[in-house]
Hints:
The complex is a heterodimer of chains A (111) and B (110). Chain A has strands spanning 4-7, 10-13, 19-25, 31-38, 42-49, 56-57, 64-68, 74-78, 87-94, 101-102, 106-110. Chain A has 111 residues and is mainly β. In chain A, strands 2, 4, 5, 6, 9, 10 and 11 form a seven-stranded mixed β-sheet that branches. In chain A, strand 4 and strand 5 (42-49) form a beta hairpin. The model of chain B has no long low-confidence stretch (mean pLDDT 92). In chain B, 37% of the residues are buried. Chain B has strands spanning 4-6, 11-14, 19-25, 32-38, 44-50, 55-57, 60-65, 70-75, 84-92, 97-100, 104-109. The A-B interface holds A 31, 33, 35, 40-45, 48, 50, 56, 58-59, 90, 96-105 and B 4, 32, 34, 42-46, 49, 87, 91, 94-103.
Amino acid sequence: NAGVTQTPKFQVLKTGQSMTLQCAQDMNHNSMYWYRQDPGMGLRLIYYSASEGTTDKGEVPNGYNVSRLNKREFSLRLESAAPSQTSVYFCASSENGYEQYFGPGTRLTVT
Amino acid sequence: RKEVEQDPGPFNVPEGATVAFNCTYSNSASQSFFWYRQDCRKEPKLLMSVYSSGNEDGRFTAQLNRASQYISLLIRDSKLSDSATYLCVVNVDGGFKTIFGAGTRLFVKA
């Protein structure tokens, strides 16, 4: 039982490049989330998916898109990366929208 | 004003000390409350939920005051392994919109 997995663990992009961060959970949870964490800012919610087939904006959605591919997988896409998107990205899942289980994170640097 | 505010820390305490963290939230419609723990360069992990009546888990006690919109975490008999960042978390919008505080850093010294 791997819990929540994220790929890649590290990524360096040039400004303007695109990429997709992958997230999968094997706990049969209904809800999934994407956060970014910057120094001194805590975690900020980018998008969430309350259930398969739905997605909603969080606090900082600009510059990102998401896809809830199926119940297990929730991907985050950066269409045109900017230096302001340099951050650590965490995916999480939850059975009922309350207690959340996090993946190990993706460290993204945009130069 | 941030939706969830925490003591900035860091807190430096000796082993065996009792330490308390405070957190305030601004949205009176907030529905559920948690403390998470985050070790350096790791993912956050749930420490405990916070219930209106207060709850305890070993050396950890959490309190919620809805009238004052205030949450606290008390750690008794601190251990070296308690050194981490403690995140106050509030859920709104049916539990699906989660707001994290910026965290309070704790260092426990031998």
